[in-house]
Amino acid sequence: MKGARPALRYAKAILNLAKEQGKDAEVNDNMKSIVATIATSDDLDAMLKSPVIKASDKKKVLDALFGDKVNNITKGLFNLLAENKRMIMLEKVAKQYSIIFDYYKNMQTAKVTTAVPLNSKLEVKIQDKIVAITGNSATIENIVNPDIIGGFILRVGDVQYDASISNQFDELRREFDNSHYIPKI
Could you tell me which residues come within 8 angstroms of residue 5 by beta carbon, excluding any fewer than 6 positions away? Predict the structure, then answer.
């Protein structure tokens, strides 16, 4: 992945500065907001990646867009990337920050695939299952996929727990395919 190493360096530097000032969680929220905003706006993404637009103009757009929504550390990141003409890396830096912040706080992200969106009762049950499997709690990211019919597929790190109905059907199908039952004719 091109630019991953410099993005990680910027993210580590920002995290260290944020930890010193006790604003690491606030900066993490800012970074998540930046990633979400860039992901939903093709125009913003194209503007940040454009080699034609000046870094100072990109910074002005970010200041106008985020303004008072972000703290001074995040604004300092905008300035630093503009000075070094690396605005193209903003999204990567923000993603790397969230990753190393979660690692620093011993937080995990659990991807839960369900047929319908999760409600609060199901989230509590899934959080209990995550603690039973990994020993730690995790942030839940819900992915809706009607193809699993029902149940859920839980993925935390490299561990996967498949409790979907489609998986149970597949197991039943394999069991019937492998059975050596010969009916009497």
Answer: none
